[in-house]
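Tip: read the tokens left to right.
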């Protein structure tokens, strides 16, 4: 028995009229057949609109540039994958055997894409008139406290900038990033990048749907490592 509909009702309080949409949203391309790539495309657009509305309302005095940075901080792969992990999406992913064996249910890019696909599926499931409002409510539920605690000041700087400033402030060389692995088809690749610091033996890795996202995730992991050792 498929437990995904009950899980979604419990975690995000939404019940699909057409459960096939939920199944499609949870199906990675590695499983073949009807997968979530098109729903991800739609969900990304819905998410961008809803989050734009959100930051516009929550920061009435903010400039366009600041609003853009706020939106970027909320819709980036690192945030989406973290939310997806907290919701337990990995337990319900439908993956091909190879992707499952390689730990695809924990891969940040897959989790982020699947969450966007769910947003797109809800938009379609609720129908033409109610779709946007249903998706808006689901997105607000998924983001939870992140909406009530939007980042301020320094937190809006991306991890690569923060890491570089941290190291330079201590007279150390800038971090080194290296491409470790590229997987997937040309139109939807997954990148894995390492981040190293010359003055130490620390090395972290990050993944993302673009090289930039992978570098940002590797930098974030390095910042977390530095904080642990500080």
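Filled-in amino acids:
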């Amino acid at each position: 028995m498929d437990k995904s509909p009950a899980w979604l009702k419990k975690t995000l309080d939404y019940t699909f009229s057409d459960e096939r949409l939920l199944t499609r949203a949870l199906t990675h391309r590695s499983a073949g057949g009807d997968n979530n790539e098109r729903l991800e495309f739609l969900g990304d657009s819905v998410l961008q609109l809803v989050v734009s509305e959100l930051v516009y309302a929550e920061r009435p005095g903010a400039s366009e540039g600041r609003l853009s940075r706020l939106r970027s901080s909320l819709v980036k792969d690192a945030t989406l994958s973290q939310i997806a992990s907290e919701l337990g999406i990995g337990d319900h992913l439908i993956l091909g055997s190879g992707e499952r064996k390689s730990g695809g249910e924990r891969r940040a890019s897959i989790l982020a894409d699947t969450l966007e696909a769910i947003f797109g599926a809800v938009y379609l499931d609720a129908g033409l008139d109610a779709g946007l409002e249903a998706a808006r409510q689901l997105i607000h539920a998924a983001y939870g406290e992140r909406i009530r605690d939007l980042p301020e000041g320094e937190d809006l700087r991306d991890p690569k900038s923060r890491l570089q400033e941290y190291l330079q402030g201590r007279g150390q060389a800038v971090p080194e990033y290296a491409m470790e692995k590229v997987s997937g088809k040309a139109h939807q690749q997954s990148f894995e990048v390492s981040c190293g610091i010359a003055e130490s033996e620390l090395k972290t890795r990050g993944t993302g749907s673009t090289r930039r996202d992978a570098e940002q995730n590797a930098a974030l992991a390095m910042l977390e490592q530095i904080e642990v050792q500080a």
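Residues 30 and 64 are 39 Å apart (CA to CA). The chain has eleven helices and three strands.
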